[in-house]
Queue: 3 jobs
Job 1
Amino acid sequence: MFFKKAPFAEQALTKALKNIFGYTPGNIALYQLAFRHRSAASVVSNGVKNSNERLEYLGDAVLGSIVAEYLFKKYPFRDEGQLTEMRSRIVSRSNLNALSRKLGLDKLIQTSRETNIPATSILGDAFEALIGAIYLDKGYDFTKKLLINKVIPIHLDIDSLVNTEMNFKSKVIEWGQRVKKTAEFVLSDELENGKQNRKLYVVHLLLDGELAGKGHDYSIKKAEQKAAEQAWISLSEKNLPE
Amino acid sequence: MFFKKAPFAEQALTKALKNIFGYTPGNIALYQLAFRHRSAASVVSNGVKNSNERLEYLGDAVLGSIVAEYLFKKYPFRDEGQLTEMRSRIVSRSNLNALSRKLGLDKLIQTSRETNIPATSILGDAFEALIGAIYLDKGYDFTKKLLINKVIPIHLDIDSLVNTEMNFKSKVIEWGQRVKKTAEFVLSDELENGKQNRKLYVVHLLLDGELAGKGHDYSIKKAEQKAAEQAWISLSEKNLPE
């Protein structure tokens, strides 16, 4: 994947954002910052770099709040556990990476030539940083309306995100049966969290007794899915599964 | 700790909130919901209870966003890792429990007689639910101003929260030396997260080879602190440490 090596000029960036979101940015410097990956940043003062990471921290929180309310109102009969799970799918790195690409943000991101960070996570990080920039530029209600009117309905299929589940566990087990490998999911640890009644479960997936993937989640079933997903991805990289 | 068994009447609750925060609530039913612990709730429709848990989910997200921005602006030269760490201290269950009690929210919470949930977490949960209610009643900017003007400066010593560290690790080690027990911190697992460059470390604290506490965090040092804290709390409950 190729990103730009130089920042967009103010006018070009203003025009690009207007095309994507239909509004004219106020403080364009915020948006230039949002699209500057740390590999293209320099230290500006007191040890702080002019990369998009602080904006990403802010945007992550603002996005989390807006999506929390969106789901709270859209699903009045789902409980807090279901809402939390839905939200974590929507703001998952893989979903935000895809969203960022759909919006065409990949063409606006500035990195150094030397960067060897997986290109995909740069996309989702820049999307969050952009949310931080929009929030600082235009406020909460503006950011919320933009997401709810211009991003979510056009670019995210919430119902299928919420209802479909990639079943990596059965994928791995079926593959194991084909190639005569035993797949064993082991609950390797249970960790207490700050919140009441919530334990973090750690699951290891062993293929023929060898560690193939790890997952952690507040439900054992989901931790197994994550362990299977990790194993599946690493098997796919070795081109093993058919 | 004693909580109320019946909900506050509308007028009394309106007055109490006015006394605590200085504003008159609009939709008082939201606030009654915010103070209703699940032990005092009943199923109202489609399987959803009229407890404060959905509001807690929403308030947690809104609070996270407001605190994220507050720290972003207060500490312009701290990086995103430091800001994230500060935020997690401010919104930690123990800090929100204490804050909730300082504000006098304990007198407004409604539970059943039979509840045996640790009373403390009920406090922090109700504080978050209250933030959810204020947000739905009055909007984001109002909630933000209320927190930044009326709650944080009066009830939270941000600088000491941010700068002090409870060193449970040395407490446990010193106690171990006194009572001739070896304390050993073992990195028991490393888990990959969705986000780039972040590993979740799991540390077990063994006292004379026996598991005494577990902690998990994105830094080994902090995971050790959390394992030590958990061990310290459970030792304290047995009245062992002096």
Job 2
Amino acid sequence: MIKVGIIGATGYAGAEIARILLGHPEAEVVWYGSKSYVGEEFASIFGGFFKIIEDKCLDDNMEELADQVDVVFTATPQGLCASLINEDILNKVKVIDLSADFRLKDVAEYEKWYKIEHKAPSYIEEAVYGLCEINRDKIKDARLVANPGCYTTCSILTAYPLIKEGIIDPDTLIVDALSGVTGAGRGAKVANLFCEVNESVKPYGVATHRHTPEIEEQLGYAAGKKMVINFTPHLVPMNRGILATEYATLVKKDGKLPTEQEVRAVYEKYYGSEIFIRLLNSGVCPETRFVNSSNFVDIGFKIDERTGRIIMMGALDNLVKGAAGQAVQNMNIMFGLDETMGLRIVPRCP
Amino acid sequence: MIKVGIIGATGYAGAEIARILLGHPEAEVVWYGSKSYVGEEFASIFGGFFKIIEDKCLDDNMEELADQVDVVFTATPQGLCASLINEDILNKVKVIDLSADFRLKDVAEYEKWYKIEHKAPSYIEEAVYGLCEINRDKIKDARLVANPGCYTTCSILTAYPLIKEGIIDPDTLIVDALSGVTGAGRGAKVANLFCEVNESVKPYGVATHRHTPEIEEQLGYAAGKKMVINFTPHLVPMNRGILATEYATLVKKDGKLPTEQEVRAVYEKYYGSEIFIRLLNSGVCPETRFVNSSNFVDIGFKIDERTGRIIMMGALDNLVKGAAGQAVQNMNIMFGLDETMGLRIVPRCP
Amino acid sequence: MIKVGIIGATGYAGAEIARILLGHPEAEVVWYGSKSYVGEEFASIFGGFFKIIEDKCLDDNMEELADQVDVVFTATPQGLCASLINEDILNKVKVIDLSADFRLKDVAEYEKWYKIEHKAPSYIEEAVYGLCEINRDKIKDARLVANPGCYTTCSILTAYPLIKEGIIDPDTLIVDALSGVTGAGRGAKVANLFCEVNESVKPYGVATHRHTPEIEEQLGYAAGKKMVINFTPHLVPMNRGILATEYATLVKKDGKLPTEQEVRAVYEKYYGSEIFIRLLNSGVCPETRFVNSSNFVDIGFKIDERTGRIIMMGALDNLVKGAAGQAVQNMNIMFGLDETMGLRIVPRCP
Amino acid sequence: MIKVGIIGATGYAGAEIARILLGHPEAEVVWYGSKSYVGEEFASIFGGFFKIIEDKCLDDNMEELADQVDVVFTATPQGLCASLINEDILNKVKVIDLSADFRLKDVAEYEKWYKIEHKAPSYIEEAVYGLCEINRDKIKDARLVANPGCYTTCSILTAYPLIKEGIIDPDTLIVDALSGVTGAGRGAKVANLFCEVNESVKPYGVATHRHTPEIEEQLGYAAGKKMVINFTPHLVPMNRGILATEYATLVKKDGKLPTEQEVRAVYEKYYGSEIFIRLLNSGVCPETRFVNSSNFVDIGFKIDERTGRIIMMGALDNLVKGAAGQAVQNMNIMFGLDETMGLRIVPRCP
């Protein structure tokens, strides 16, 4: 049985790891770390766990955690994980970081977009970017996994095969994305109050959102060159879900646009045997409700012959495939388990 | 492996049975019956099941079903189940009816409240009222189970021990209840459109709602006398959840009100070993989000010494403990399985 | 032109006063007081007012306000208004307090329920309870009006005529109420975050909510005796609206329950000429969407002959008739204007 | 006093015309036409109008209407208005059509996108496209105005000045838009039930939505050439609101991108004196809540120097500026009234 510690267990992503692991036959959480609720019963904060989880919240003492558990999930604000790890820790325990600390390979890029100093730049090189379907092999032997962001996972997976195979022009990629409010975290901010969010939508972080360089870096690997994209997130009045609508110009071959069948074949080539990526039937668009609570990414697309562009659309649950679910998927890979263990959750709708 | 047929699989309760049974190790659905979608893929209607359930919808031919399955769930409008069953059917297959056809023992009462003729009154006597925690023993051997209504399950379980033990005066019971919109079904009605329901609450069926006689009959058994209550349902803009707030005058003993400890002891006596009924800690009120997607009923109470009344509060998920979950729980009991099999679902919040 | 100052203009009720007064031909806001946003543009906090209100937020200096305006609205937490007023202030300016400071006539009662010391008990006697339809005559000459609470306004108006005329037994009154989330204010609290409130309902303040003594005191005047009631508020995922569902035992005359016509006649007697109270047609229940943004209270009722009780139901918009609208209505009365001036707002639905 | 008839008064747009005209000093509705509710009280369908509008619904007899009113609003499905008008009608009464019948100048284009035969193609030429801020002069003398679609109004106004002045490359325009659910109408469809829409977002009509050619035609006039764009609408769980996020490549001059100041100046040139178009401050993005219930369009933009693109963002209330409000604005222009009469509605938020 894998012993698990969660730092940041009382945030939405942390609590979702707890929920998922209750259904995992080979792992159990033994440490619910929290900055704000030390000493309080975990189930008093998330009442759904009443009579299911009886533990109290502990602090975020990484040293002690490293002695007691096999893997630590850090579901914390940027900067914390980098400030806690060192060689001794990584020799004792595997770390899956849900923050952005080890997602970008270029420390200057990190410091520019996140506006904080990186406390452990020496581990950036070693850290593996935990986008399971793409980096599965590297994740296997990793000590430190950088779990991708929610917008990022959705944006990358939706476009990846078409960029990798040169079907679309990388310079034309535009990602327009919608997010449920859990993506904004559980901090007490006026902007996230019910009455500020309900019955409205808004773009935010336009041309400056921190998931931009992460998408650019990863898709850039697929393109084989540096990419610069537009990424515009929007806040939508619902609890969970990311929907990415992505636009790119199709590359003509012999003066002709690729057909729907050709594009579909490319997606199938990369995702045909993936359990958690569902390529939707022709003409079907993804809806976030159909992936709710699950680890699925649903992908659809539409070729617009009038404009020569393709519209790619992806949906996932930001707390599951966009955070906790993918983190557990990474854990499964790192510990040599069936990758889907504990994650074959049927979407819950309505 | 128990073979299961669902009539009404494309309604919300029917689809929820399908969802739950995907996690049940001893049962599998082999017949997704539907009136409106015969021949269509089940997953094309509920996209969450894409690549999980590959079956097409079948009709609601009870004769054929009885030959092919071990148990039939009828998640259909009132009247249908009563029109389909007969001795031959019941000799071949167990029937769990999620409609109201066999909930009331008095056929006149049924016809008065539901305003339709009962097509199979001869089976009313035999049918067992499937409120698992109360009627477990009778359910074991039943051929036909009347699965309780969502409001009813919540309303009864919240007050049952206090009525049974004479802690409250049955003549003073008032049940004020709130429901999510899945309770209104999946029919195409203007009244249930998003923009008619969102940003509003309303009472409905005041003093005439059909769950009233069901609550009265069942609590009347506990009281040992006929009961007449007020029951007022309200529609609330959320997908799932029932919250019942119930008021009753406490019975004084030797001129004194019962204490919180005494009331708690009564609840513990009846529910202390129940997995699916969670008596909340002192001062904690139930919230529907904390039972979402699960088979739990959360119960809290507050004694008001100023008025001599007790306020009892219960919450459940109308599609699970209020419909599909309790139906599966009944199936488990009828087939001699662990009662909680497939039902230890962790609440999903947010 | 009446010059108006608002203390607490950046809360939801304060901003609603601003919105309403933009449509008032005889009053204009000249002071937008705020604790948190002094010096910032009011429209930068509530973007709806962009290019409509150009003022910056000022502080809450009551002395200076008293010199500059004709009336001050205090839309602030309990205790502030009482700490600011004195004889000098009240000689210069009329004060309409939206907090609870002057609603209860018994200072001990206030200090018990609100758990703070009252800083100006000498003005309690003078303050007029600003429930316009009931206390219109006293409001005319008041210097200090205690604007009623949102739950309170709805709960009182819904039951008032029937208590006043002895149609119902005051000792049996139970008020079960639902509120939109603006009622919880605009403070940055985790409990009011979108994802904590959305898709859930919960009771709170059970048997201890502070609007209880206010309802009891006012209805007690109608009953001609001290009343003790049960009042249970619930939080519902919508922005605006209060719905009160009230239960009471009907008083029989000559062994007979009053008829619907008799009850209706009583309501008509009190409210027949009121613009802002709409007695709904027989069989129609109020819905909060139909009073949204308006100053209306919609009232319906249903007699249950089976139990001998009546179910009274009232709905209002907590920010308008439950706060800002009633405050402006009080202002109109105090300044001798048409009581409906600026308040004939058509409900906005959906 | 202008006498107004509404055909389709019991749809959301029709009812919103009724709501707006209650605040219009020079117009009154004398005919509430409805296909489904003839003979029923209008206020029994939209309870907010109880005791405000006492009329019963009438049929949609255009002949009779033309004799009784000065202007007819047709808030009906495509095809109806075209089937009702003729020379006799247009000689008697002005017609403002909220459907798409007269929006496209090319009848073949209409029939291709709408898949119905056009019944009155001879009036297409005469009809004026009622985008007030652009076509004000032509609207003045029109007999027949084609009121623009909700997505269209938002999409066009947001990009218009930059296309007109050659700031952006028209061939690169991509419009990604979000809509509240009132945009889907009030028909009883499963897809628009609360539980199908709530807690989810979805794209729809991808590359095929009928507002596409309308945007292309109108912006094409500004560009001075035929335009082909991508337009992707999404359904969002809220009642009202359109948000358009638009992407285009900036045209360099002398190798340099235009500056924010230059772009702002272009917007100011076209909209600086417009009451209903609010150019937001630098760095501020529009939010639909801030235009709720009002006739405003809020516009913001952001230059992304990394990609050389501009992100333009517009927000409006689909029922007001996107339908009923603009229709009334057209009426004001057609009748020589102050264009803003009845429309200076302060946004309502929350």
Job 3
Amino acid sequence: MKIDAGARFLIVGLGLLGGSYAQALKKQGYPVRAVTRSQSSIDYALTNGLIDSGSAYPDPDLLAWADVVVLAVYPHVLVEWVEVNQEHLRPGVLITDVTGVKGCVVDRVQALLRPDLEYVPAHPMAGRETLGVQNADCRIFQGANYIVTPTEKNTPEAVSACEDLGRILGFARISRLTPAEHDRMIGFVSQLTHCIAVALMTCNDIQRLESYTGDSFRDLTRIAKINDEMWSELFLDNRPALLEQMDAFTAQFTKMRDLLERRDVEGMRQMMRQSTARRKALEQPEP
Amino acid sequence: MKIDAGARFLIVGLGLLGGSYAQALKKQGYPVRAVTRSQSSIDYALTNGLIDSGSAYPDPDLLAWADVVVLAVYPHVLVEWVEVNQEHLRPGVLITDVTGVKGCVVDRVQALLRPDLEYVPAHPMAGRETLGVQNADCRIFQGANYIVTPTEKNTPEAVSACEDLGRILGFARISRLTPAEHDRMIGFVSQLTHCIAVALMTCNDIQRLESYTGDSFRDLTRIAKINDEMWSELFLDNRPALLEQMDAFTAQFTKMRDLLERRDVEGMRQMMRQSTARRKALEQPEP
């Protein structure tokens, strides 16, 4: 199982990410078709050259055409979609996804999947504060991270093919984690940060706030503009890992608060020096 | 008291901010001199055309030359500097500063100030994660906010002159707050955000973190690279207001945590919708 030069891609769900996948794949010369619920999304994608053709219902002929299926839908839609539609896929098809939480879908999909299909979960860590195929832009993948989360049910060949897809899309770093490691990591670097931004943006109600903010406040609240439907679902799907991360953050934040209350300047400076060293390390290019 | 076309500026403290003030003022054609502790900072500023001349000690002739004195030094240095050096200033001089906390300096400076001098406190809300005059760049003022924090001891003319300085430097929005309002505001928009970034950056120790982060984590931790000497002093100088803001944030963050624990999706979505609306309002240009 590998991604051949003329591999035929079916994008399921033409939102911001599905549309950006389509755009990147078309630019690389792959045939791309799409299935999505809204005809206007299909029309937009056709008009703007993101896909070759598409359908607003899961047309069996379209499904039978695909070599690679990218599920770019909400987690709760994903499992059901595979269950209902897999019968139309050809043997040997590679299925992957873009879901931001893995534990809640990976086992369920792999448990019900036909033995002659393979699902390799992946998480493209790219996004925007805007929604829909109208905002699709494959430049969001440049410099970004792509995490593949295989299980023991996956073959090395399919995992490699899924990693190749990350490279084809233009991601800067491709890495592997188990679904559980992934969910813990994402609870930290993505979901916790969104919780913080929402809490920061709502903990004070100030008039003419724009006159008093500096870059730091604007940076920390950029993601406070949030798709509440999607993120509440992602939070709930990763509840234990996210709660654990929220508690770890609260413990550290409370430590800083208590150091300040006790006027422990050296303690505060030590935390600041540690955060400075870690943030610098984050900026360094890989060896 | 106003800033005349040829007003002579003395910058006290040639760091990132003092150097950026000097650069902006020189570009506007004002005579600019500086007093700072390090001769190499003077040399750098001279070589790069940020000042006309300078001294590594508070030369009385230099002090007697100035029409406007900008104190760009740490809070604990500021009060003592005025006490020791004000005798050399000419009557009618306008003194202003760049200090990020006001309560701890404003009353003390105004209490000891000669009656024929006037100190109008100001906070230019611009900065960088780098230090020193070598990183001075007056473009940091573009689009940024400038807050003047006068007291009843100030004359309307001097307050206007200080606001004019903000415009001369190129700030986008000039506003007025009392020192107490300022410190509460800064506890929220600036100090709290730095506490959050430091806690976030230090609450987990993960190898190869750069492979898993998205824009959100990088945005929220940009300011975790922090000047520990300066910020610990600023935190301590604003301790009651900052503790209050930290507790307000913790309460809201804990609310989100408890909603998640109780699986209260509608409660989470309500917080997200409120944060989205407020963040959008922050982006809107003033009427």
